[in-house]
Amino acid sequence: MAIEGLGIAVIPTAIVENEIADGRLQLLKTAISIPSLTFSASWLASPDALAVELVAQMAVELAQGQRTQAAG
Asked: What percent of the chain has a predicted confidence (pLDDT) above 70?
């Protein structure tokens, strides 16, 4: 909606890097402080849960700013 000019959005910069680079979005500086959020993930343990565990670990790394883009 922000890209369509319908308002502003609070989005992590890493998610909208392309939109900022090509001018569809711009960063606004504000004095607003957003509190930290807590997330949790849970799943049933099973032999085929490896993919779920990997996605959960990726989410943790992204949230902590530790993950780098995978080479394509």
From this structure: 90
